[in-house]
Specification:
Largest sheet: 5 strands, mixed
Strand order of the largest sheet: 8-7-9-6-10
Structural class: alpha/beta
Number of helices: 8
Oligomer: single chain
Distance between the termini: 70 Å
C-alpha cells in the first residue's frame, strides 16, 4: 500500500503542468459583449486564464438574474453593480473582487416627447427585470414611483429597431453604442440619465 501511495505521489509531482486539468469557472457578464468587457475577453483569447490554471466560460447577458445565479452557484463570478450585495433587504453572502465604472453608462433612451422620468408613467419601457430591480435605473424608477402597476415593462429583444419603429416608448441603453447608432441614423431621441436626477 505504501509503495502504491509513493508511486501515485511521484506520478503527480512528475506530471507536466500543462497536463493538469484547469479549473472550470463561469463568469456572467452584466450585458452583451462589448468594449467594457474587453479585458476579460482578451485575457481568455490570449490564454492568460489557462496560464494560471483556469478554463473560463464568459457568459453574455441573456435576461437572467445574475445575483440569484451566483447565490445558487450556477455561475462562479458575476459582473454587476453594488446592489448585488443587498437584496430582499438583507446582505448577501458574496465577495467583492474589484470595482469598475464609477458612473454607470446605463441610461434610458426615450422617444422625443418623453423629457422627464414622470413622462414614463403609462408608457412601454423595454427593460430587463435585472435593470428594473438592480441598477441605477431601478433607483430612479423607485424615486419617481414608476412601477409595473402604472407602466408596462417589456423584456428586451436587444434590437434597437423596436425603439426606432416606436414599438416601445423607452429602452435601456449604454451611452457607448446605442446612442452612436441613433446619431448615425439621425433618429430623434431623449436621454434620461439617473445621474442627472441625483
Amino acid at each position: 500500500m505504501r509503495l502504491i501511495l509513493t508511486l501515485l505521489f511521484l506520478f503527480n509531482i512528475l506530471l507536466p503542468a500543462e497536463d493538469i486539468r484547469p479549473e472550470k469557472v463561469r463568469l456572467q457578464l452584466q450585458w452583451k459583449y462589448q468594449f467594457q468587457f474587453a479585458g476579460f475577453i482578451v485575457a481568455k483569447e490570449r490564454g492568460y486564464y489557462k496560464e494560471v490554471g483556469l478554463d473560463v466560460d464568459i457568459l453574455e447577458y441573456d435576461n437572467t438574474n445574475s445575483i440569484q445565479d451566483l447565490l445558487d452557484k450556477k455561475i462562479d463570478y458575476a459582473i454587476n453593480n453594488s446592489i448585488i450585495i443587498y437584496q430582499d433587504k438583507k446582505l448577501q453572502d458574496v465577495t467583492l473582487l474589484a470595482t469598475y465604472f464609477q458612473r454607470s453608462p446605463l441610461v434610458l433612451i426615450t422617444q422625443p416627447e418623453i423629457k422627464s422620468p414622470l413622462d414614463l408613467l403609462g408608457k412601454q419601457l423595454m427593460m430587463s427585470e435585472n435593470n428594473r430591480l438592480n441598477s441605477s435605473l431601478s433607483i430612479l424608477l423607485e424615486y419617481f414611483n414608476i412601477t409595473a402597476e402604472n407602466t408596462t415593462f417589456i423584456q428586451p429583444t436587444f434590437d434597437l429597431e423596436d425603439f426606432i419603429t416606436k414599438k416601445v416608448d423607452a429602452v435601456t441603453a449604454f451611452r457607448s453604442n446605442e446612442i452612436f447608432d441613433l446619431n448615425q441614423r439621425e433618429i430623434p431621441y431623449n436621454i434620461i440619465d439617473p445621474v442627472e436626477h441625483g
